[in-house]
Amino acid sequence: MTKRFVKKSLALVLSIMIAALMLISGAPMASAETSTNVGLAAHCLKAYREGWIYVYGSAQYGVVDCSGLIVTYNGVGGSRVDMLGSSYEWGYVSNGVPNIHGLGLHSPGHVGVYIGSGMAVDARDVGINMCYQNVYTRPWVEWFKFAGVSYPENGWVLLDGESFYYENGEYLTDTSRTLGGVTYYFNSAGVSNINPPADSYEATDYSYISDHGSSYNYYYDDDDDDDDDDNYYNYYSYYSEDDDDEEEQARLEEERRQQEEALRKQREEEEAARKKAEEEAKKKAEEEARKKAEEEAKRKAEEEARRKAEAEAKKKAEEEARKKAEEERRKAEENAVIAEYDYEDTDDSKTVTAIQTRLYELGYLTKKATGYYGEDTVNAVMVFQNMNDLDVTGVVTAKTYKVLKSDKAKNDFNLLEQGAVDNSIELKVTALQERLSELKYYYDDITGYYGELTASAIKQFQKNNELTVTGAADPETQLKLFSDKAKENPNAGCVVYGESGALIEKYQKRLIELRYLSGLVTGKFDDATLEATHIYQKTAGLAEDDKLTPEQLEVFYSDKAVKPADYEVMKYGFSGEDVAQLQSRLASLKYYNDKTSGVYTKAVAASVEQFQKDFDLDVTGIADAKTVEAIKKETQRESNEAGEQYILKTATISDNALAGVADVKPAEVKMSKTVENDFAKTLIALGAVLVVVLLFTAVFVFELKKKSSKQKADKK
């Protein structure tokens, strides 16, 4: 019986004894009600932040090994040496780790805990202790659910002060949910932008599972192969030999090793000496043979050199003649004219169009191909030749054409960005806007000015063409934009959240007209516009989305567009004919003294509030149906009273005029407040005054005639 066998036997006996004691006394157990995934994750984070120490085989507060870290949380995890085997659900990390906090992570001989958001905690090794790293920086093989831990199915959880929402067993990422009337947004790590009410965490539905025999098991290695012993955990093997015996064995082992090393060196030296002697003898024989061979070779070489020199001289002369002829042919081919000034395409040839198209793609022409080789094309070719180290002639030779069509051709694109003011780039920006318009990214006027709308269109183009989204047209963006590989806007004709321009401006005007949106038209599809869009989609029975398609917009701009339930209610920010009519009535009642603009301003809201106070209505500043009806009635009442008073005054003036005693003063024919602002009643008033004047004139003429007749009679 060897000493190793004795050690193994003692270790086995001790392990069995400890296991028996554990079974008698009972191992730490945990129930699903008290041990949760977020509790385990928080426990591991705490261990990392407190700097727990790694000690092999330990499972106590502050001092743990990899499995001990898990066990110190309510004794969960099942078998310490096979927590993966104790699990009821697992999968491969290479296929992705589910969005579940507190999952186990396993690699041969090691376990850790997935905290969530791509991070893991594990007790690594002596001197390394606790590690908090991205889950993919270590070669984890499997993920699994710990025995004795409950995992949420649906509802809110709170971890490290941040809220996560589970659906169907996993927390949500990169999306939003409206819960209890509140919309929550979850980022790529699953963190909610706001926390829910405190009692929301208590309502979470957990999947309660058994602990699958969550107890301490032990590993016994009965293999005599020493190579594998260090790859397993033997947590409760407490056998150790006497320290002095171990030191003596170590000393003897070191002496044996040194003797073997000395013998090995001696043998190596002897072998080296033998090889050296053999090598020297061989070298001497080879040297003699070499000299003899060299003399023979020298004679043959001289003869061969003579013949070779003659042949090479002949060959050289022939090669030079061939190269000269080839160079002349090559130059002739390179200088062959492909196209030049005044060339024009025919039905059979589109060479000029091909040249112009390529110059357009590289930024040397700002207009598309015409098929005619004019001055603009000549100038563009000259610039291209200069930038590509070619003879500057303005003529497209075969050489120029080859470089032009190659992938190595240099472009003439410079950085174009928002706010740049330079007459020299106006044509470049114009071409940029025309191309963006052609690809349905730009819907505004072609101005040649790189403003906010152009930058917004460039951003959309960069996003859809897998370029860095900056809003600035760098050379890379322009190369892609003017190429035939540029992708057309997949949202052409749509209004999309985050975009700007004429389409958005038109869309906002219609939202305001339908009273889904209030305020000013900005031309930007911002958060307020998005909120109004969602309300319209809900009212119209459409799925909530961040855009409207061309088909949906066609209905939206038509009479078929669904109006909100409170469309008849006027409030701040609204506009329309009904608002203008409201302003006119409030003005006639002396509540409003601003212009009749048709826009429900703050001044209109203040006027409505004052009217509501005076007539015992709910003071809101909003012209609801009840308020509008009260304003109508009051306007009609004052109008009627003003009309009656005016009729009485007109009759009195007429009587006085006929009697010749009328002393008409401006103050006596002063119209009422309501009539002053009513054009129709003003006309009536002017008519009445005219009648009075005519009557007065008739009386005056009658009196003159009467006096004249009397004078004639007196003369007779």
The average pLDDT is 82
Query: From the alpha-carbon coordinates, what is the Rg to the nearest angstrom?
Result: 49 Å
The CATH architecture category of the largest domain equals Alpha-Beta Complex
Helix content: 40-55%
Across the major sheet, the strand order is 4-9-5-6-7-8
Number of domains: 7
The global form is flat
CATH topology of the largest domain: endopeptidase fold (from Nostoc punctiforme)
How is the main sheet built? 6 strands, antiparallel
Q: How many strand units?
A: 19
CATH homologous superfamily placement of the largest domain: endopeptidase domain like (from Nostoc punctiforme)
Helical region count? 19
Look at the helices and sheets and give the structural class: alpha+beta
Q: What do you see in this structure?
A:
The chain is of the alpha+beta class. It has seven domains: 28-215, endopeptidase fold (from Nostoc punctiforme); 244-334, no CATH class; 339-405, Orthogonal Bundle (Muramoyl-pentapeptide Carboxypeptidase, domain 1); 423-481, Muramoyl-pentapeptide Carboxypeptidase, domain 1; 495-556, Orthogonal Bundle (Muramoyl-pentapeptide Carboxypeptidase, domain 1); 577-638, Orthogonal Bundle (Muramoyl-pentapeptide Carboxypeptidase, domain 1); 643-714. It has 19 helices and 19 strands. The protein has helices spanning 3-25, 37-50, 66-71, 83-86, 243-334, 351-361, 375-387, 398-405, 426-438, 452-464, 475-481, 502-513, 527-539, 550-556, 577-588, 602-614, 625-659, 673-676, 679-715; strands at residues 53-54, 59-60, 63-64, 90-92, 103-107, 110-116, 119-123, 130-134, 142-144, 151-159, 162-167, 170-171, 175-179, 182-186, 205-207, 337-339, 396-397, 495-496, 547-548. The strands form six sheets. Strands 4-9-5-6-7-8 form a six-stranded antiparallel sheet. A hairpin with a 2-residue loop joins strand 10 (151-159) and strand 11. Helix 15 crosses helix 17 (625-659) and helix 17 packs parallel to helix 19. The longest helix is centred in the middle third of the chain and has 92 residues, at 243-334. The protein is flat. The termini are far apart.
